[in-house]
Amino acid sequence: MGAQSAPYKSMQIATHLVPRDIQANESVELTFDQRERSRVRVALASGEEIGIQLKVGSMLSHGDKLALQDGRIVEVLAANEALHEVRALSLPQLARIAYHVGNRHVPLQVESDYLLMLPDHVLRAMVEGLGGTVHEVRRGFQPESGAYGHSHVHHSHDDEGHGGKIHDGLLPRNEDR
Fold first, then answer.
1. Residue 15 pLDDT more than 60?
2. Considering the chain, what is the average pLDDT of its residues?
3. 145 falls in which pLDDT band (50, 70, 90)?
4. Residue 2 class from Cβ within 10 Å (0-12 exposed, 13-18 middle, 19+ buried)?
5. CA nearest 65: which of 134, 137, 17?
6. How far apart are CA 90 and CA 12, in angstroms?
7. What would the pLDDT profile of 63-110 be if each residue is shown by its tens digit?
8. Over the chain, what HEC string results?
């Protein structure tokens, strides 16, 4: 067999989180769907491909830091993605809408005067029926993590077009998950 023209370089793998106050020297933009996977292959901002292999059921958040095998630290950034921005004429009306959307067990980002959710035509019709307005936007998505500090979302759509269902974990989130 002939000699290889270039030495084989194995892909770097991130297997655990490190404290957020550690300085990162790399970054990776991930969609919400990518951040909820415990095993995924992604490209850093530099273009280098890495693997993320966390404990099953782990979920990454915007601002989390991952350690690569070679010692580099990678900051996780929420990538811009298609979302529905929900607004209402008053905060009580927005709270009512948030209650009804939350009752559908879908991921929801709560801000001071609006909500963000993944696009779903059934939920959009419900929100509009409750008097809210829905606008299509592109932003980073960081939904509420659930009552116990960690959530896992299933993005399968049922026959009626309903989106992901969120399931709360029983243990609070820690650095290793």
1. yes
2. 84
3. confident
4. exposed
5. 17
6. 49
7. 999 999 999 999 999 999 999 999 999 999 999 999 999 999 999 999
8. CCCCCCCCCCCEEEEEEECCCCCCCEEEEECHHHHCCCEEEEECCCCCEEEEECCCCCCCCCCCEEEECCCCEEEEEECCEEEEEEECCCHHHHHHHHHHHHCCCCCEEECCCCEEECCCHHHHHHHHHCCCEEEEEEECCCCCCCCCCCEEEECCCCCCCCCCEEEECCCCCCCCC
What does the alpha-carbon distance between residue 68 and residue 80 come to, in Å, rounded to a whole number?
Answer: 24
Distances (CA, A) of 173 to 42, 153, 163: 23, 15, 24
Between 41-45, 127-131, 153-157, the lowest mean confidence (pLDDT) is in 153-157
Q: What is the pLDDT of residue 164?
A: 44
94: CB partners within 8 A, 6+ apart: 86, 87, 88, 113, 114, 115, 132
Model confidence, pTM:
0.74
C-alpha 129/C-alpha 52 separation (Å) is 41
The CA distance from 49 to 47, in Å, is: 6
Token pair for residue 40? 């995924």
Quote the CA–CA distance of 152 and 150 in Å, as a whole number: 7
